[in-house]
Structures are given as structure tokens and as C-alpha cells.
Amino acid sequence: MKTEKKISGKWQGLIVLVARAILGITFIISGFAKAIDPWGTVYKFADYVGILGVTSLEPLITFGAFALPLVEFLLGVFVLFGLYRRTAPWAMAAMMLVLTPLTFYLAVTDRMADCGCFGDVLVLSNWATFGKNVVLTALVAYLVCRNRKVVSVYGPGVQWMVWAVSMFFVLATEYWGYVYQPLIDFRPYKVGEMLYNGPQSDGDDAEYIFVYSKDGVQREFTLDSLPDDDWEFVERRAVALEPMDYNLVRSGVVILDQGIDRTAELLDHDGEQLMFVFPDLATISISATYIINEVNDFAQQHGVSTFGVAMDEIQAIERWNDISMAQYQMYEMDDTDMKMLVRGNPGLVYLKGGKVVWKRALGSLSPELMQASDATMTSIVADFDARKTLNYSVAFYVLALIVILMINRTHKVVKFSTERIKKNHKKDVTLQEENKNK
């Protein structure tokens, strides 16, 4: 009976370790994916508020977008390493009791394309997300009952250090993603990619509206209903297409001028351009307009053409031009395209030959760098390198965890080694005495 209980206990311990690994890694990835791109999390939270109709939560959207990734990451670390063995599983269970019914509601109603659980890193269908949460809930329930039967990787005396280092790592990641740009870009239109690749189709599948003029009146015609020779051709305009899946290859953004497609003439050339991206003109402060105008002047002094894009109506754009005294032409762009292109309100995109060179949020630009005598369009963003920042921060975090583990467990390793040495020495002495007696 004792042997059976011992074997059963080993299996329970193994299941606990497997459950810790699955839950911990899942929550860490989920939290980190959101922390990388806090703007994306803000947009997703706004979608949830709109779908659920809880407009009273709108003031808390930004706070929630920062808090949720932090909580998820910390819980993942706690569970993975067995920290706070009683509290962590219960806290995780409380989250799953909220998330699982929510994802079931989304799966049934299909009111949102995806839950955004892993940001843009991994997009799951609503039913796949619900199934994942059911499995995670079952594992959490097991840990609530059995987690204390397996020891922690870190002892109680240093668990607060792991908590503090992990929190600092997540908050720093969120700060860089919000103020500058996400440390990893999982969206379309990455740095080095073309922003415009021409029409989506050159064949018969392309859909166009043809504009003709007669007696000062313009009318639109389709390809199969073109007018007679009395009408004068004005332009050909691409028909607005249905929203596309951003996991598919895209032909690029679409820039409109009062409904007329100006994408090709703006982006299809070899020059340098700076694009101001305004996802929400109404929330941009007046003080920001001065910085925008300074950046615009700096770019034009360096031979870079500038223009802005917004999703707002013509009246809102005209009002913006009056308030900001903009010296650049404003155009319209789809809201989703703008948010996919660059994070921030406003955001900046620097192009060469239609290719993205860099992207930044306006607030991250340093006026001192623009005022330098040798300043260039590249040097003004040289104060931040996303790849280096990511590599250094991850290396620091992993090294900190290793150092904490060494501080916490070195004495046990020394104690174990000392006991082994004493035991082996005692065994050698016993053997020597036995040999003497023989």
C-alpha cells in the first residue's frame, strides 16, 4: 500500500509540474504579447467596451491595457516557478472564471473577429480560444487542489525579488511600446517593407469606377456601362474593397482625397516622405501641433515631402488645418490601416521610395536631436533601437532570475555537497577499518 501511495504521489507531482508549465508559459506569452504592444491592447479594450456596452469603463481603458498584461505575466511566472503556491492558482482561477464565459459569449455571438488574447503574435478563432480556456480552467482547478504538494523553484525569502524584477521588466516593455513603438512588430507594414505595391490586381478581377464629364457635370460609370463619345474621360477610380484578413499578403494602404484614390501619386516614386498619421484628431492636444509643425519644418528643410492622413470627415480635417496651422496636405485613410501602420496618436512614418524606413510616436522624438547641426531624418530617431532594447532587457531579466536563484539556492547546493563529501569520507573510513580487520 505504501508503494502504491508513493507511485501515486509521484504521478500527482508530475501532473502538477506539467500543469505549471502549460499554464505558466501560456500566461507569460499572453502577457508579454500584450505588453509589447500596449496601443494594440488599448484598441482591443475599446472594442470590448463597445461590444459589451459598458461605456462607463472608457476612462479605465488605458489603465486596463497596462494592468492586464502585467497581471497575466506575473501570474504566469508565479505558477511556472511555483511561487505563492496557494495564492497564485486562486488568482489565476478568478481570471479564468471571467475570461472563459467571455470567450464563450464571443464564440456564440461572433461579435469580434478574435479575442486578442495573444495580441498580434497569434490570432485564434473565437471557438479555439474558448476551447483553450476550458483546458486552462481545468488545469487551474487541479493546481488549486494540488499545487502545494510540489516545492517552489525559489524559496519564500526571495520570491518578492522575482516579483519585483518581473514587474519592472513588463512595465519597461509597456513603456517602450507605448512611447516609442512595439519592440517586436507583428503587424503589416514593418520597417523595410513597401507601403504600396500597386493595384491589387492588373487583370480582369480589378474593379474600377470610371468618371466622365459632360456639360460641367461629372458622373460615375462601371466598365460595362461606359458612355458614348460625347462624354469626356476624367479619371479611373478603384472600387473600395471589403476589409481584408491582415494575415494575408496585402497590396498596401489606400490614401484618399475626398473619395479620390491618391495612393499611387503619393507613394509610387523614389523620393523621401514623412507621413503624419492621425488616428483620432479630436484627442490630440494643441501643444502637440507645435511639435508637429516643427517636425514638418525640419523634414522640408531636408528635402523630405510631408503629408498627413486621418480617418475623420472633411469638416474635421478642415477644422484641424485651421487649429494646427498645418503646412502639409491632409488626406483620408482607413482607421484600421492607420492603426496597423504605426502606433501612437499621432504617429510618424518615414519613407524612401515607398519603403518604410522608421516609425515612431510623436511624443518619443527629442527636440534636442532635431536642433543638432548635423541632424538628419535618420539621426533624430537614433536614440532608440527596438531590437537592441529587446535583447538587452530580456538578457537582463533572465540574468536577474539566475542571480536570484543562485543567491537563494547556493547554500543548499553547498550543504548537499558537504553532506555527500562527509558521507563518502565516512564510507571510506569504514572500508579501511574493515580491510584492517581482515
Structure description:
The structure is a single chain. Among the domains are: 2-179, no CATH class; 264-383, Glutaredoxin. The chain has helices at 2-36, 38-52, 61-81, 87-109, 126-146, 159-179, 263-267, 286-301, 314-324, 335-341, 367-371, 386-437, and strands at residues 208-214, 217-221, 232-238, 255-257, 260-261, 272-278, 305-310, 329-333, 347-352, 355-361. The chain starts with a helix and ends with a helix. α1 packs antiparallel against α3 and α1 packs parallel to α6. The longest helix is centred in the last third of the chain and has 52 residues, at 386-437. The protein is built from twelve helices and ten strands. It has a seven-stranded mixed β-sheet with strand order 5-4-8-7-6-9-10. A three-stranded antiparallel β-sheet has the order 2-1-3, with no helix packed on it. The chain is elongated and about 125 Å long. By secondary structure, the protein is of the alpha+beta class.
